[in-house]
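Continued from yesterday's entry.
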Amino acid sequence: MRPARPTVLLTVVVLCASLVGCSSGAGPRAWAASVCAALAPWRAEIGTLTSRTQQQMTAATTPAQAKENLTRLFRGAESASEQARAGVERAGVPDVDNGERVATSFVASLGAMRDAYGRARTGIEALATSPSAEFYTKVSAVVDKLNTEYQQSSLDTSRLDSEDLKRAFDEVPECR
């Protein structure tokens, strides 16, 4: 038996590497798992920030304290949204029809949410805290605008074009 030639081995290695490099993306289940793994900390952080802010706002606070609490909330939500956006971007493109469009829409949605939180933070930071009635009226306007922008940019996995991705989001443990 003859030993394999180094050039044959090199050719096989190059061929294998090129085939791996040509794969178009992660399978639906792997992509959904990566996306949900990126979104889980974001959801948890938004929930924690919201809960903490609600507790602080129901306590007797001054407009200055409310402004500080809301600014902290929106800054944290903006940062968490950016981390989620980057995580979803790292998930790559799912190997399904229109996978590039799906991945781009997820990343864009999270970017829009991040930007909405950033605009809310900036809006709150710009408010004068007196007179207090006017402050709270303007806070309501900022929060209403945030809610509208947030709804417009929200992720809805039930409206995916790909049945494989819908099934993956319903089935993978990371998405439950």
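--- second protein ---
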Amino acid sequence: MSESGMEGLLQRWRSLEHELGEAGVTMVAISKYAPDDAVAVLIDAGHRCFGESRPQLLRDRALRWPQCQWHMIGPLQKNKAKYVARHAAMWHSCDSVATAAAVAAHLDGRTLPVLIQVNISGNPDQHGISVDELPAFAAQITAIEGLQLCGLMAMAPHSGDVRPAFQAMRSLRDKMFDGSVGQLSMGMSGDFREAVEEGATMVRLGSVLFGELDIRNNRND
């Protein structure tokens, strides 16, 4: 990584950390498309909260940098549940009782904070459970020993106004936790400011943070 690339990454990180810190929002740095040296730069600067969607990479980076929190943010297959159970600090994308039970089976006595992924846009191409399923699903997850339900996660619609979806998510979160604080993971590089304004407690930032170091920004697609 070039010196200019490193400095650009650090400048973006400092700016975003300040902005989100003022709002009391946690930045999950989505490092799944970033090289190890870019991740190392952020860790050296003091960042500790990262998100991965590939269980094996989460495992590898958690073992390499145990001082950090590694959040699982992507779809999870039961045969890879052990990696999340053993190495994730939080699981954002829980949308299957069977997979949740598989994760719990590998926890070995520790407690894993879990967010339920809600398909708030009703898009069949997106993961997550429907709004109607949420109460029953939450009860099932709460009943699984070792999993601590602590909030909700969602992705905004791909097009149109994202605010109604974010507002609906906040309402769901408030109802589920009876007004007490529950985590609300919503908002990505293109819409995180709207998410913050609508009540996000965590935002998931990849390309807006890593810039040209994010491999997606070098593919021209």
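The mean pLDDT is 93. Residues 178 and 220 are 45 Å apart (CA to CA). Will compare against the first tomorrow.
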